């Protein structure tokens, strides 16, 4: 092309004009043809693009609706219930659940070792105590971050004292949905006395509809004797009857929080009164919120003490005669008279001792006294064995520290 242009420049002006005219006409025609073809192509491409996006949107809507109908809770969605009840939907759900088990199920079938654990050197005759499952983040500690110091953790007021007190009654399990690499140093700094016998992390949770849940049936303990203290209802949705929900500890500067301290008497009473069905006991309260449980339990103790004091003032004979004259339920003889008495809890320890002048008891009264004494002896033996376990753990920690120091 360059050689042709150079040759055209060497021609005379007239010859050059005649030689360029056909070329100019050809260029104009080609330009017009390109514009016309481009316009047609643009229209065709616009229509094709619109159809493509419409098909993509429709396919996305169908796939999203199918996934939702197969994975949503059938109790909350009529579409999910209809889809999962069909033969095809049930088959898809079953296969997806089976394929996803390694990712949504706990890492092992038994999250806790059989009781008693071999490393504790406890006699098999010692009964397994109640189990207390404690959440970590925003329940026992609060994590904060800033650009100057990075991550820092504040202990909830009374958290360490709460752990030491509960170790006298419970087999404590700290169960967090955080990963082990992040949570384990925090637990180690919080529980320096080793009050918690077990630590469980995210790999021990069950993933249910976007939430890491704590499945108590995998703990290898009697579920009826497990208490969970957590700030998240969704995390305990599989066994909500065992849970006591505390307010999340979100303000690291709040040193007036008494949530754990207020809950301590009730948790101790569950063990002292040997409640064998924790969900039944918690169901007697109007709510499983920690503040409600603590307040209503305190009211029951006051009511029981007032009734006991009234019985002492008038004497047992006067009480019976008064009941015969005026059969009103003012001075019920039941220990607590309300919620926890039906579940096995009484307020005898806090209501006070029996009157000094007590008549000789026999028959059913003697049987009741013997039964109470046997229960107290059994509880005393269990607590003594538990204290020996804690002392042994403390001695092991001390020997390990001395060995590290010597090394």
TrEMBL record:
Lipid bilayer topology: Single-pass membrane protein
Where does the record place it? Answer: Mitochondrion inner membrane
Which Pfam families does the entry mention? NIF
Against Gene3D superfamilies, the record matches this protein to: HAD superfamily/HAD-like
Q: Where is the composition biased (Low complexity)?
A: 1-16
| UniProt keyword Calcium, yes or no | no
Q: Which family does it belong to?
A: Belongs to the TIM50 family.
Quaternary context:
Component of the TIM23 complex.
Q: What is this protein called?
A: Mitochondrial import inner membrane translocase subunit TIM50
The protein's organism comes out as: Aureococcus anophagefferens (Harmful bloom alga)
């Amino acid at each position: 092309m360059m050689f042709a242009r150079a040759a055209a420049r060497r021609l005379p002006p007239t010859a050059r004009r005649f030689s360029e005219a056909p070329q100019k006409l050809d260029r104009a025609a080609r330009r017009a043809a390109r514009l016309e073809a481009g316009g047609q192509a643009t229209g065709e491409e616009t229509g094709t693009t619109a159809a493509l996006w419409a098909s993509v949107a429709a396919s996305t809507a169908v796939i999203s609706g199918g996934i939702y109908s197969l994975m949503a809770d059938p109790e909350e969605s009529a579409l999910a219930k209809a889809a999962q009840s069909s033969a095809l939907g049930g088959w898809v759900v079953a296969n997806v659940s089976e394929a996803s088990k390694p990712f949504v199920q706990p890492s092992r079938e038994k999250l806790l070792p059989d009781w008693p654990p071999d490393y504790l050197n406890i006699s098999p005759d010692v009964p397994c105590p109640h189990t207390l499952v404690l959440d970590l983040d925003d329940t026992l500690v609060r994590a904060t971050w800033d650009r100057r110091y990075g991550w820092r953790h504040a202990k909830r007021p009374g958290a360490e004292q709460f752990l030491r007190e509960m170790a006298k009654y419970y087999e404590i399990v700290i169960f967090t949905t955080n990963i082990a690499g992040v949570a384990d140093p925090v637990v180690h700094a919080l529980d320096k006395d080793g009050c918690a016998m077990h630590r469980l992390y995210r790999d021990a949770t069950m993933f249910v509809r976007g939430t890491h849940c704590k499945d108590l049936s995998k703990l290898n303990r009697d579920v009826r004797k497990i208490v969970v203290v957590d700030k998240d209802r969704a995390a305990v949705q599989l066994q909500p009857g065992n849970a006591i929900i505390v307010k999340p500890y979100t303000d690291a500067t709040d040193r007036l929080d008494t949530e754990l301290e207020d809950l301590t008497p009730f948790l101790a009473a569950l063990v002292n009164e040997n409640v064998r069905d924790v969900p039944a006991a918690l169901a007697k309260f109007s709510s499983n919120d920690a503040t409600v449980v603590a307040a209503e339990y305190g009211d029951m103790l006051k009511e029981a003490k007032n009734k006991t004091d009234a019985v002492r003032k008038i004497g047992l004979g006067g009480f019976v005669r008064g009941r015969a004259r005026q059969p009103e339920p003012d001075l019920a003889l039941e220990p607590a008279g309300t919620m926890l008495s039906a579940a096995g809890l009484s307020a005898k320890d806090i209501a006070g001792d029996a009157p000094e002048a007590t008549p000789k008891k026999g028959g059913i009264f003697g049987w009741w006294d013997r039964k109470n004494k046997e229960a107290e002896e059994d509880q005393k033996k269990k607590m003594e064995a538990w204290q020996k376990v804690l002392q042994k753990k403390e001695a092991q920690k001390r020997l390990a520290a001395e060995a590290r120091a010597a090394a």
